[in-house]
Amino acid sequence: MSRIVSITAIGLLLAVATLPVHAQSGKGEAKAKKLYCWNKGSERICSDTLPQDAINNAREEFSAASGLRRGEVERTLTEEERAEAAVAAAQRQLDLAAEQTRQRTEQAMLSTYENENDLRRVFVERTGIIDNNVQTARYNVASLRDALVSLLGTAGDRELAGQPVVEKQAASIRQRHTELVAQLRMQNSFEQQRRALDVEIEETLQRYRLLKGVATDPRG
How far, in Å, CA of 156 to CA of 149, rounded? Predict the structure, then answer.
């Protein structure tokens, strides 16, 4: 019959050590038996069998013959924990792939570009596109702001003259305001992209100099 008691790990070892000699040197199958210890709430449970409700618990395993610790089993992960572990493993694979790509890119950089000017030309097209976007957005913002100020001025003149602002005029004001807000957001986005590109260019040049073993460009 299974023996299940609440006992500390030290108590377990003492109990096993005091077993009769014949109990420790029985048949081969008896020597292979294990003792399991796991936590159940605040209790430490030890038994020579593992109940169904403890299968997923973290536990320690001891030899029933010698009382020596034979191993440890981690608790079974929940579905959420398994999903998180899978995501973490996938991220590690992505990080490894990114590092390998970076190394290949650096080797290509060294073999392709003779100097910094050659490397800077790689960014010319991207820089031109973003600069054009920034300038266009700024022009649109200025035009919409002027149009909105004009509409608001006309509406204010009508009110000062004691005339109501007609719905068509009010709708035009709302429309211009909406367009201005959208263009301001677009302008901010383009300007952020331009600043990020400047950082990318400088970091790439710094890495290139390091790989080439050359001094920092005095223009930096």
Answer: 10
